Amino acid sequence: MATVTLLAAISAVAPQRLLMFGVMAIGAPLAAAAASPPAVLAVGGYALLAAFAISTWQGLLSSTDQMLRLLTIVGTTMISWGIARHLRTALRASANAAREREMLAAIVRQSSDAIIVSTLDGTITAWNSGAERIYGYTADQVIGRPVGDLIGMDRPERLRQALNDLAAGQQIRMDETKRVRSDGTPFLVSVAVSPIRDADGTIVAVAGTERDVTEEKQARERSARAARLESLGQLAGGIAHDFNNLLAIILNYADFLTEEVTGDSARDLARIRDAAERAKSLTGQLLLFAKREPTEVETVDLNEVITDAGELLSRTIGANIRLVCRPCDGALPVSANRGRLDQILLNLVINARDAMPDGGVVVVETDLTEVSAGEAIPLPPGPYARLTVSDTGTGMTAEVRDRLFEPFFTTKPADQGTGLGLATVYGIVGDAGGHIGVESTPGIGTTFQILLPPAAEPAGQPAGPAAALCSGHGELVAVIEDEEYVRDLVLRILRENGYRTIALSGSSPPDAGLHGVRLLLTDIELPGESGPAVAARMCARHPGLRVLFMSGYSDSELRRRYGLDEATRIVQKPFTAVELLAAVGEALPATSPAATRI
After folding, report:
1. How many separate helices (H) and strands (E) can be counted in the chain?
2. For 277-292, how does the pLDDT look when each residue is reduced to its tens digit (9 = 90+)?
3. 117 close to 205: Cβ distance less than 8 angstroms
């Protein structure tokens, strides 16, 4: 506006013949530089009015010179308006592009993934904060260095080939590849590398995005290992259930023969029974691994467990190994089975002993720890009692550690171990709602850490003695068992101890003709209709009928599967005659409606 006003003043005092008012057309082009179309129109309009006024004052109204110069101002204004509009569009596009670049730069800087840019010859030119966090190097430490020094390419020709492929426009993706942090810690990353092109489409650099997938892989491996152990547990439980039927026959018929043989035959029979008892123990370990072995839970002081076991374990592990027990201050109550805790401790200490053939130290410690949310431990956050068993033995490789809790997996010779010790520990800890972890380094040693939920109440006194054994007095017992030899065994035990018996078929037990039957003794797992379903149908017809179940599975699993309450009594296979008669004796005196199925 000032320029136009100045030109207007000069034109007004200039001689008419010079026609100076036309130079005001320059105002609009000057205003176009501001990239503001409204400003151009304002300046052009002002110049047009000033030129019209000056030329009219000079007596040029409606002359050809006036019209030509006024048209020149109008034309110049319109052209300048178009230029200003184009400039404004270009400036806005440039500003948007700058904002996008700034946004992308901020995203790159703040990304949790490592974003690395290098030239086509592999020299690092950009290194974001994610790369600093993952690798442990700052940008100042790595920019200008060859990328091969940091990504750990063991073969330079592979890196050269990768850079050539990227320069040719290809992309490179790798789901898992090894890297090493600044402190030497190895980790795994997923990688995506792409070429960077300039405005002309020419490839000028390469950019790689790396994500740390170490924890993801470990989580997948833990999940796969848990699934594998679960399937093995199901297999072991099924085998143990069938084997328990056979053991019940072996044990009880060996007892039948005890009074009938003497001399060498009696000793042979004792060996048979001893072998059957050992087989029963192994089967119990299988069921425990499968979480199908019943246990009685009580409140136990974990400190008391390691203190009481110290002397026995010291004699067990040998003179060249020193056992150190370090219970924490105060009581550390947990809800668990005392015998199972002793078994955990024994198995872990024996395992440590076997890992130290030349001697060493085993340290057993207890303390109270806290599990926080987000930790790689499948337990709810909160306090946990911790039992730690460490040794200075040979340690183990990662491959052995991953299979450590599988049943029958062992690195010992065939005659020195069954591979059930640590599998049993795994089952006990899982059944108690805890977690077991292991850390081991070849040549340094191994540390097992067991976390158990703390008990709400302090440890109490041990339970009282079991109920006294009762013989029968002619009561009639109906027996349903699909295994013929087990059924014959049960019938014989009952008949020889004062009971009358009747064998029924589980597939179609009669609903009538049960006059005088006091107790139904049935297996839970039957072909077709289950034992609880059969018992429910028979009890509906005969309300006074009492029921006792028997099974080779644990009562916890069976109660959950068939909806059996805690009052329902289940006698576990393989049972001895004494155990079966005790269960039958407890079942028959029941009088309350809730106890008709004890």
Report:
1. 18, 17
2. 777 766 766 665 555 4
3. yes
DSSP 3-state of 298: strand
SS3 label, residue 297: coil
Task: Phi first, then psi: give them for residue 412, nearest 5 degrees.
Answer: -85, 160
- Supply the pLDDT for residue 468: 44
Give the Cα separation of 115 and 305 in Å (integer). Answer: 53
Tokens representing 154 are: 């063991």
CA distance from start to end of the chain: 107
CA pair distance 363, 389, nearest whole angstrom: 6
Positive or negative: CA dihedral 498, 504, 509, 512: negative
d(CA 277, CA 281): 6
Higher pLDDT, 272 or 14: 272
450-460 per-position pLDDT tens digit? 999 998 766 55
DSSP, collapsed to helix, strand or coil, labels residue 458 as coil
Evaluate whether 45 touches 27 at the Cβ level (below 8 Å).
no
Hey, what are 414's tokens?
């065939």
The pair of structure tokens assigned to 243 is: 């084997």
Rounded to whole angstroms, the Cα distance separating 288 from 336 reads 14
Q: How many CA atoms lie within 13 A of 227 on its CB side?
A: 6
pLDDT in tens, 314-348: 776 877 899 999 999 989 999 888 778 888 888 89
Contact 26, 72 (CB under 8 A): no
* Distances, alpha carbon 327 to alpha carbons 306, 436, 457, 462, in Å: 7, 19, 19, 21
The single-letter DSSP state of residue 443 is T
Q: pTM score, two decimals? A: 0.44
